[in-house]
Amino acid sequence: MGRYVFKLPDVGEGTAEAEIVVWHAAVGEHIEEDQPLVDVLTDKATVEMTAPVSGLVVSVHGEPGEMAAVGSTLAVIETGGADAGEAKAVDPAPRVAPRPLADPTPKPPIRVTTSPTEPAAPPPPSPEVARARSEEPLASPAVRRRAHELGVALQFVTGGGPAGRIRLEDLERFIASPAERPRMNGGARSPRRDGVDQVKIIGLRRKIAEKMQEAKRRIPHFAYVEEIDVTELEELRAHLNVSAQAGRARLTFLPFLIRALVEVLPRYPQINARFDDDAGIVHRHQAVHAGIATQTANGLIVPVLRHAEERDLWDCAAEIARLAAAARDGKATADELRGSTITITSLGPLGGVVTTPVINHPEVAIIGPNKITERPVVRHGQIVIRKVMNLSSSFDHRVVDGYDAADFIQKVKALLEHPATLFMGFE
């Protein structure tokens, strides 16, 4: 039997190492050529690597969350060829399919039947192991996430895997047998809960943590919040949505905010910028490439709406919707996830009263609209009900002075409170 050594190839862009995210095959499993073998995470994207040969997985090197250097061994596969003696240090040209940052939660391994004529016999069931309620259950992150989604406490699930490890099939059997679940009687307390789940921060979540830590460490943030009366803008938005031609994207608040930024930013070029603090150079951009912070199941991702200055409201709305969908579906490309010059972050209906957003390094500003609420305000000496929203923002104090930041937001406010001026050109 021959052995094939699968090494981590150079995945481009000068990457010296990559993080192992999830193995799709385990030691002792048969894998077919082109079947997914392992996902690795670079600074830009998750890369799925497929098996270059068919055979039995003899060993894998590295746990999810560990870093692997380019050229290091990832797996050894025993092939059906002639005996090759010692394992060959082969540096393959693997088939890699770059894809956007994806869910770092390990997936169940894909099992392939080795006999084309006889179905493989099911493996004998593992003995079930009793476990005290106070004992932490053994389960993979995928099983824990599924149990959390279903509201199931894993300490009540009997595991059929090695050492009582809870598998997906054990969880499914538990769900299918309601009699096994602890039930609450009328007025009874919930079952006692003990144990601590230890969740290793890996994959995209670790990248987010590193980027936020770097931003807060390097950038002296200062926040500025302004109240904006958006009553007229909301009336205009509702009218445009009702009267829009069929097939046009629905207008949200964001296209209007982006339009205001496009009008105001040319007067404040130091805000539409990226700061290379290592070189001491501020790159002021004429084009407005707006990062749209998007919450996904995998974490916060920031796809980029490019050249906002040349888009009308509906084009802007359609592109925001497309980018958000691509990010949530894990289909955003690497080019769609980099190059923003200013970022917009919005929690939508959960926007709260005020936020202090973290700047998307190496940018120098981030804008965060909060929730729109109806409030009583004094207008022309009368108390009236108006739709009011706070606009929160953070700036890099090394590049943007406080006065300039306040003046910038005041001009954005003026445009939003008098929406007709958004389309008249900024003087």
What letter string, H or E per element, gives the SSE order?
Answer: EEEEEEEEEHHHEHHEEEEEHEEEEH
Q: Count the helices. How many?
A: 7
First-last Cα distance? 77 Å
- Total domain count: 3
Walkthrough of the structure:
- This protein has helices at residues 141-150, 168-176, 203-218, 231-243, 253-264, 313-328, 402-417; strands at 2-7, 17-23, 30-31, 36-41, 46-50, 55-60, 67-69, 73-79, 96-99, 221-229, 273-276, 281-284, 290-296, 299-301, 304-305, 342-345, 365-369, 373-379, 382-396.
- It contains seven helices and 19 strands.
- The strands form four sheets. Strands 10, 13, 14, 15, 16, 17, 18 and 19 form an eight-stranded mixed β-sheet that branches. A five-stranded antiparallel β-sheet has the order 7-2-4-5-9, with no helix packed on it.
- Helix 5 packs across helix 6 and helix 5 packs across helix 7 (402-417).
- It is globular and about 85 Å long.
- It folds into three domains: 2-99, Beta Barrel (OB fold (Dihydrolipoamide Acetyltransferase, E2P)); 120-201, Irregular (Dihydrolipoamide Transferase); 208-423, Chloramphenicol Acetyltransferase (2-Layer Sandwich), CATH 3.30.559.10.
- With 427 residues, the chain is an alpha+beta fold.
- A hairpin with a 4-residue loop joins strand 11 (273-276) and strand 12.
